[in-house]
Specification:
Elements: E1 5-7, E2 10-12, E3 16-18, H1 27-35, E4 40-47, H2 48-62, H3 67-74, H4 86-99, E5 104-109, H5 113-125, E6 130-134, H6 146-161, E7 168-172, H7 179-188, E8 193-196, E9 204-206, E10 211-213, H8 225-234, E11 241-245, H9 251-260, E12 264-267, H10 269-274, H11 278-292, H12 307-310, H13 314-325, H14 327-330
Parallel strand pairs: 3-4, 3-12, 4-5, 5-6, 6-7, 7-8, 8-11, 11-12
Antiparallel strand pairs: 1-2, 9-10
This protein binds flavin mononucleotide (FMN).
Length: 334
């Protein structure tokens, strides 16, 4: 069975990748992920706030800290999805590269152009095989237009592309007005891969304590539909690899994402739920599904149901939409 896959210019043993999460900040987990068969590992993001927190600790020691800066940092959690300062991060990257054969992809989330450039270079120097740009931010500034929000992606990419030579992936928000156009611009601007999608901060409200709930719900398989749609729309039409991220609960979602046209399928929630060894179950399920159908390579199913391969047109899609909406009038369907 040939599961080999090419992603952002890297030759991978199979299409299952561990997406960025605190699980991958631990060297033992990284080794266990490789033992379970994972094809590549994305390190958790190095966040600018963490870099600043490290600077703050230093400035506190030297007495040079300003109070407003200290207050801003209190909004950033000390535990949970924080992963340590720059030194620890770069050390992790270096040790992970030495510990396993699977490619290690660094991840960066910055707010200033200097930050993107400086830390991208340092992650490359630490030996990472690739770099994922996590351009996550919530456009709560009401003066920001959609165009300005979308323009951040190519701007960040251009700055980092000039700085590093390792392959670059850009992780997109699902809430852009024209994800296809942004994807095309990024591919033209030198992105080797696009990750669809990040999962954004969505707080709840605790109606007993009358306060915000900042907990994080792990994803469910129902959530694959939006990334599945965009993977299917983009497959074969942009010159960048496509990674599906969100909603993998079992091997079935992996099959679906591959059929839509994903080059790799990433998972975090399933690993947090079942442990890093679950990668082995995902791969066993994928292999069993392929062999039950006499299919000997993942390339045979990749993109089989993409928009391009199906020859779908806008008129067909509008007709399908109308058909779905007519469902209640059509009565119960079998
Ligand atoms: C606890 C946790 C921490 C995460 N940390 C990061 C991160 O540091 N950088 C990033 O790009 N994505 C991060 N993510 C998002 C995941 O990489 C992934 O894109 C998202 O969870 C959707 O995949 P899933 O449905 O398989 O969980 C995190 C997700 C979780 C649940």
């Amino acid at each position: 069975m040939d599961l080999s896959t090419r992603y952002m210019g890297l030759e991978l043993a199979n299409p299952v990748v561990a997406s960025a999460s605190p699980l991958n900040a631990d060297l033992d987990n990284i080794r266990r992920l490789e033992d379970a068969g994972v094809a590549a590992i994305v390190l958790p993001s190095l966040f600018e706030e963490e870099i600043r927190a490290e600077a703050l600790r230093y400035e506190r020691l030297t007495g040079a800290v300003t109070e407003s800066f200290a207050e801003a940092l209190t909004y950033f959690p000390e535990h949970g999805i924080t992963h340590g300062g720059t030194t620890r991060y770069l050390d992790l990257a270096q040790r992970a590269v030495e510990a396993v054969d699977a490619p290690i992809i660094g991840s960066l989330n910055d707010t200033t152009p200097e930050g993107w450039i400086t830390y991208a270079r340092e992650i490359e120097e630490a030996g990472a095989h690739g770099l994922e740009l996590n351009v996550y931010f919530l456009p709560t500034d009401l003066s920001l237009s959609g165009r300005a929000v979308e323009q951040r992606y190519p701007d960040v990419l251009a700055a980092v592309r000039e700085t590093v030579t390792i392959p670059i992936a850009v992780k997109l928000s699902p809430y852009l007005s024209a994800p296809g156009h942004v994807a095309m611009e990024l591919a033209r601007g030198g992105a080797d891969a696009l990750v669809l999608f990040n999962r954004l901060y969505q707080p709840d409200i605790d109606i007993v304590r009358l306060q915000l709930r900042n907990d994080l719900e792990l994803s469910r398989h129902e959530e694959i539909r939006l990334p599945l749609l965009w993977i299917a729309v983009l497959a074969g039409r942009v010159r960048a690899s496509l990674a599906a991220s969100t909603g993998v609960e079992s091997w079935e979602e992996i099959v679906k994402y591959l059929m839509a046209g994903a080059d790799v399928v990433m998972t975090t929630s399933a690993l947090l739920r079942h442990g890093v060894g679950f990668v082995g179950d995902l791969l066993a399920g994928l292999r069993a599904w392929l062999s039950a159908r006499g299919i000997h390579s993942v390339d045979r199913i990749r993109g089989l149901l993409s928009r391009q391969r199906l020859g779908l047109t806008e008129a067909f899609e509008r007709a399908s939409y109308l058909e779905i909406l007519s469902w209640p009038r059509g009565g119960e369907r079998s």
